[in-house]
Amino acid sequence: xxxYPNRIYYIPNADANSADHSHRxxxxxxxxxxxxxxxxxxxxxxxRHGDRTPKQKMKFKLTDPEFMAFFDSQKSxxxxxxxxxxxSLQRILEITLKLIHEMGIRKESSxxxxxxxxxxxxxxxxxxxxxxxxxxxxxxxxxxxxxxxPLEVVKELDHHGKLREKVKTVLLILKWGGELTHAGHAxxxxxxxxxxxxxxxxxxxxxxxxxxxxxxxxxxxxxxxGRCQITxxxxxxxxxxxEGETTPILALMVRKDxxxxxxxxxxxxAREDMQQSREELTEIINSEEPMANYIxxxxxxxxxxxxxxxxxxxxxxxx
Length: 319
Description:
By secondary structure, the chain is an alpha+beta fold. It has helices at 27-33, 65-68, 86-109, 113-134, 182-199, 206-212, 226-240, 246-253, 258-265, 271-286, 291-298, 303-315; strands at 55-62, 81-83, 144-157, 163-177, 220-221, 254-255. The termini are far apart.
């Protein structure tokens, strides 16, 4: 089993405009292409999502039992809960409307209205904003997301007398926006066509013929973010020259299950490096010295770092 190490075409970016660069094989590649013992067995490509709308999010702490109930299925090692399904988001909306109604009644019946509003005004305004976001459009499961992150976990005895963990305080994070634009959808389709034509420069229908006869092993994976899923579906449309709506193609051709998420989104192996980067960035941001000093001390002076040095000299110190 041999591979062409240099025969895989490199697509610099997921932007279709950047995919217009043609690949000219070197003399070594042309010689290897005629070698009888070598065969191209696979092509692997990784793309970012297309153009999107701005991402937005809000977060606030909660202690209401209705939100704690989402952790009831976890007996120990309490983990963050992510809610994206239509049923889950509908339940969050119901809880939000209930709390807004109850807080409104308490405000009206309170003898000290000023004191009540001082205590609950921030929470009340957050709940109202969350209601507006959740009711802004029909739930589709990929355009909004709620995360419940446990902040305070205690151990208590349940009604069976067994010790179990229970969440007392959560950080609710609501994310919306970041949806693929029409331009992003068109970019993904154009890129799909460009990759197909690049892989089969002399026989543009070669891949389509293989697809029609099930003689290829095409796998497309996507993270669970809506913009990534639709980008993958639109790319598949262009890649296989498919017609119709993107949603059915996405459902049939794109894998987005747990194994796909572990393949795409599992960053545990890089956790130490990420933490080190955060610490270094925090040190730079909080330092009294100009940023240029850090770049001179830490980075090799290649062309990229010279550009960074120029920008850092303009910024001076972030503080």
